[in-house]
Amino acid sequence: MENFVLQMPVPYYFGRGQTVQLDPVLSSYQRVLLVYGGGSIRRNGIYDDVLRHCHGVLTEFSGIESNPSIETVARGVEAARSSESDVIVAVGAGSVIDCAKAIAAGVYWEGDLWEMVTHAGEIQRALPLIAIPTAAATGSEFNSTSVISNAKLVLKKGFSHPLLYPIACIADPSYTFSVPARQTRAGAADTMSHILEDYFKPGFDALIADGIAEVLLRTVMASLEKVLAKPDDYDARADLLYASDIGIKSLTAYGKKGTWSCHSISHALTAHYGVNHGESLAVITPFWMEQVLNDATVRRFDQFARNVFALSDPDPMTNARAGIDALRSFWKKAGLPVSLHELGIVNQEGLSNIAMELHETRDYSSAFMDLSLSDLETILRRAW
Ligand code: NZQ
Ligand code: ZN
């Protein structure tokens, strides 16, 4: 097992009614910047619930879009500076919380904000941030990562810094009841992808990480089916939300090493075509799996098929293939897209350029399997 440092720096208040925890958490601050997205929190009552516990001077910054842009971050920084806010409360899904993190650091960043994204190690200060997730997907509320898009450069980039950990996360599963089916599915696929990216890392001796991953994957799949049938199934929504946070916080990675593969492909597809993050992962992941399945990797895929889908063909390669098929079929049955053209990418012309861009800018040498230019092209072409 690889060495690791276990850190869980975000106090995590989970469950119905936990928004009352805003009272003590906010008690030492005077000026709150309330940050949210396109307005779902106003329609479903979360806004009123949160406002009851926001004391002091309140400024709002709303309208944060999916895949938040660097321009939106800049507007948020301006709102935080002009209101002299001393704390940010972010209420929303991954894009809102990611944008709030960038605003938190951007307030103290002198110079070009995109430089902050690309030189995150130089961040020295950030406003404290309280994260209140309203959807289960990215786990952004529980980590120190933010993903920001730059349309001019056609880039989507993640950056992390310890100062971006929320000082508290308040996760009430009932806030996720109103998430539309499409976003619920995409969020579950994203959560599963985070877990899979860690599961498919080199090595076979991180048994605890693997076991946690397998139970999380089975739980997310069972819970997704339940909430699609009954959106206000509290326990199933609770499992999806908790899994999204545990899934991102490396419990599934402790003891392992190596980079992720599918997320970089998804980010490039979003930067070029604006596709939904979770949906693109549902498309790409099975094709990536098929591309890297070989005699050297079959053992891991066989384990995945056995422990996640209870498949038991005695031939490991047959079982491995059946496991990949089972994953794709599960996502398809849940209503997720299984090809890039279903995502609205109308032709294959740009895919070679994306493969080249990934080949030139990403290093997959420590991933589960190194990806050559030809591997990347094949994955994207087959996924189309
Ligand atoms: O904007 P509003 O009106 O709030 O509507 C949102 C939005 O349309 C809606 N929604 C959220 N909660 C709702 C709700 N609608 C009704 N009821 C509720 N309770 O759902 C949509 C959510 O969109 P978005 O925030 O974009 O989705 P998601 O949570 O999937 O976040 C995706 C972004 O996170 C990044 C992705 O790249 C993408 O930019 N990621 C961040 C990560 C991180 N910080 O660690 C890791 C991930 O891998 C990912 O890259
Ligand atoms: Zn993701």
Which helices and strands, and how do they pair?
Blueprint: E1 12-14, H1 22-26, E2 31-36, H2 40-43, H3 46-51, E3 57-61, H4 70-83, E4 87-92, H5 94-106, H6 113-118, E5 129-133, E6 145-150, E7 155-160, E8 168-171, H7 181-199, H8 207-229, H9 234-248, H10 262-273, H11 277-292, H12 298-309, H13 316-334, H14 351-361, H15 373-383
This protein binds 5,6-dihydroxy-NADP (NZQ) and zinc ion.
Uncertain runs: none
Strand order of the largest sheet: 1-8-5-4-2-3
Give Rg in angstroms.
Answer: 20 Å
Number of strands: 8
Q: Structural class per helix/strand content?
A: alpha/beta
Helix count equals 15
Please tell me what the overall shape is.
Answer: globular
Instruction: Give me the strand/helix succession.
Output: EHEHHEHEHHEEEEHHHHHHHHH
Helical residues, percent: 40-55%
Mean pLDDT: 97
Bound molecule types: 5,6-dihydroxy-NADP, zinc ion
- Regarding quaternary structure, what we see is single chain
The main β sheet shows up as: 6 strands, parallel
Strand content: 5-15%
Q: End-to-end span in angstroms?
A: 37 Å
Keyword list:
two-stranded antiparallel ribbon, binds 5,6-dihydroxy-NADP, binds zinc ion, 384 residues, alpha/beta, 6-stranded parallel sheet, 15 helices
Describe the structure.
It is a single chain. By secondary structure, the protein is of the alpha/beta class. Helices cover 48% and strands 11% of the residues. It contains 15 helices and eight strands. The strands form two sheets. The chain has a six-stranded parallel β-sheet with strand order 1-8-5-4-2-3. A two-stranded antiparallel ribbon has the order 6-7. Helix 8 runs antiparallel to helix 9 and helix 10 packs across helix 14. The longest helix is centred in the middle third of the chain and has 23 residues. The two termini are 37 Å apart. The mean pLDDT is 97. 5,6-dihydroxy-NADP (NZQ) binds next to helix 2, helix 5, strand 6, helix 7 and helix 11. The site of 5,6-dihydroxy-NADP has 36 residues, from helix 2, helix 5, strand 6, helix 7 and helix 11.
